[in-house]
Design a protein that fits this description.
Helices cover about 80% and strands about 0% of the residues. The longest helix has 27 residues. The chain is elongated. The chain has about 100 residues and is mainly alpha-helical. The chain has one domain. α3 runs antiparallel to α4. The model has no long low-confidence stretch (mean pLDDT about 90).
Length: about 100
Amino acid sequence: MDNDAKMLQLLSSSLTALELKYRANDFATQRELEPQIEELVTKYSDLRRKLREGPVIMTDEDIAGMTRIRDEIDAAADKQSMMFAIARTAAFIGMRV
């Protein structure tokens, strides 16, 4: 499996983890996080499109960086840490689109 495929799997599982944490929050927190989640999903779609169009563009460093972010997502226990994890994920993706 090449790094692009690994990244797609890692991002997919990371977004699922964020969405599950989002759903576990109260309605007020969900409303506050919704715009960030939607922006992240849009960036994710853009990156998926880019990865389908060309050759391998992800490096081992990219995989390691996203793995660290995924660890932050897993550890996110409150609204602030979720907001930070969402922002980090969006920034990571945005630098690669």
